[in-house]
Design brief:
eight-stranded mixed β-sheet; 13 helices; globular
Length: 484
């Protein structure tokens, strides 16, 4: 594939981003089914404590801060969404018309009419920039602040979600039976806990929440015999024999202790099932989000945050993206403009519903919503032969347009969090190639999220594998326009 990026090499990304496996992470990726591995002593030890938390446990403090991050794996085209350049020339400009938004001077492409109608409830940051051209390094830069531009098989630093989970856990004993950090089909490919250990990894909910058969198994059990039966299936010690071959023994013991405690609370607290039960939502609300995977993921995200989850991530991927299941719109993958049209209705509806719902339910001061990918797409359109037919892709061998990886200038959107909305921050040049005003980097992105959660990133250090105090943000500070 021809490299249209003058600085960063473009990698051929011909399919969905792979999902990582291994160790306790594999338990989490399997959803709650892994809770059958609980030791019986742990179940008996925690049963009474968990049941005692049931009354009022899903009524979190109204001033407790929370974050929902909606991730676009592969990187969304900023030119075909939030930062259109109608005068950039045919080599750059997409086919979409511009539409006015509710914010004077702010235009989106015609693909985002519902978000345009509520633009007064968001801030569009048009000047994000990082320096990594690959998916792994780009994701690690934005989610953990790692400045390395090389793609690595696993992260060197913990991502902001894990860090937040860890730091919030140090502040107080958790009152809610729900995990502090939940991922609904989350981005797990290129980020993780690194030296914090799997104790602070997300509680993963997998599958399509819109499916009639969707369920989160083994939560809210009230029958003691059922709980005992689950505990007898496999002892914790049997699992440790396998885990010891791959992980540090002491660290994983601590992780599994925490995992066991979390699992037991979910198993025995009858209130936990309510938070995950989308059937309790009015049909009109479910329709507003969209009766599809993305819409119901974001509705479940709002529901869990409202019930007491502090950090929630969800990835908009899979069949709704097009043939390759992500936003990586190289020409070899799919027709970039057909792909944007294919996914835009569902995306626009789900995101606008989430933002609107946050404000309507009075969560806008407490809950910050961030929608982003690891980078944007090349302003200059490239052409290559399709590698296969499918949704938003012509038959194999057909020349079609695409946009490649572009970290030098891209957009993301922010809502809630008590910030002053109804505006846009920063800009890119006339072709959308480089952020040229109010440039914001990964450190600024991270510091802004930490600030909302009450974490002073300039003064917070965590010990790494060698015991060295490591800053959670090595460079950057909160973006003033995105601070309450």
């Amino acid at each position: 594939m021809k490299n249209t990026n003058p600085i960063f090499p473009i990698r051929s990304c011909r399919g969905p981003i792979p999902t990582g496996h291994g160790g306790r992470r594999a338990f989490l990726q399997a959803g709650l089914a892994g809770f059958s591995t609980l030791s019986l002593p742990g179940i008996l030890k925690l049963q009474n404590q968990s049941m005692a938390q049931a009354a009022g446990a899903l009524n979190p403090s109204t001033d407790k801060k929370a974050v929902i991050m909606v991730w676009q794996p592969g990187g969304m085209s900023h030119l075909d969404s939030y930062d259109p350049k109608p005068d950039s020339g045919s080599e750059y400009r997409g086919p979409f018309n511009l539409i006015a938004t509710k914010v004077p001077g702010l235009q989106f492409t015609e693909l985002m009419p519902m978000q345009a109608a509520i633009a007064d409830k968001m801030v569009v940051l048009r000047s994000m920039r990082q320096s990594a051209g690959g998916h792994p390094a780009g994701s690690m830069q934005l989610l953990s602040g790692d400045p390395d531009t090389r793609d690595k098989p696993k992260p060197k630093y913990p991502d902001w979600m894990t860090v937040s989970n860890y730091l919030l856990a140090q502040k107080s004993v958790r009152q809610s039976p729900l995990p502090a950090y939940v991922g609904i089909n989350p981005p797990l490919e290129y980020n993780g806990p690194a030296y914090l250990g799997d104790t602070y990894s997300p509680f993963v909910v997998s599958g399509n929440p819109d499916s009639p058969t969707f369920s989160v198994p083994n939560i809210g059990l009230t029958n003691v015999d059922d709980v005992r039966r689950i505990g007898r299936r496999l002892t914790l010690r049997q699992n440790l024999d396998t885990l010891e071959r791959s992980f540090d023994h002491a660290r994983e013991l601590a992780a599994l202790d925490e995992f066991e405690s979390q699992a037991m609370t979910l198993l025995t607290n009858p209130q936990t099932k309510i938070a995950f039960d989308l059937s309790r939502e009015h049909p009109r609300i479910r329709d507003r989000y969209g009766r599809n995977s993305w819409g119901q993921q974001l509705l479940l995200a709002r529901r869990l945050i409202e019930a007491g989850v502090d950090v929630l991530t969800t990835s908009l991927s899979g069949p709704l993206c097009g043939r390759v299941g992500n936003w990586d719109d190289h020409a070899v993958n799919q027709h970039v403009f057909d792909a944007m049209k294919f996914r835009s209705r569902v995306y626009d509806q789900a995101v606008s519903a989430l933002i609107e719902d946050i404000y309507e339910r009075g969560l806008d001061k407490r809950v910050l919503v961030v929608v982003t990918g690891e980078f944007g797409r090349t302003p200059k359109i490239s052409y290559a032969a399709s590698t296969g037919a499918g949704d938003a892709s012509a038959p194999a061998g057909t020349s079609q347009p695409g946009r490649d990886h572009w970290p030098r200038g891209f957009s993301n959107i922010w809502a809630g969090g008590g910030i002053q909305t109804g505006r846009f921050v920063g800009s890119t040049d006339k072709r959308g190639e480089d952020a040229n005003n109010r440039i914001c980097g990964p450190g600024d992105f991270l510091a802004t999220i930490y600030h909302h959660l009450g974490i002073d990133s300039a003064k917070t250090f965590i010990k790494d594998f060698n015991g060295r105090p490591t800053p959670i943000v090595d460079h950057g500070k909160p973006i003033p326009e995105l601070m309450a």
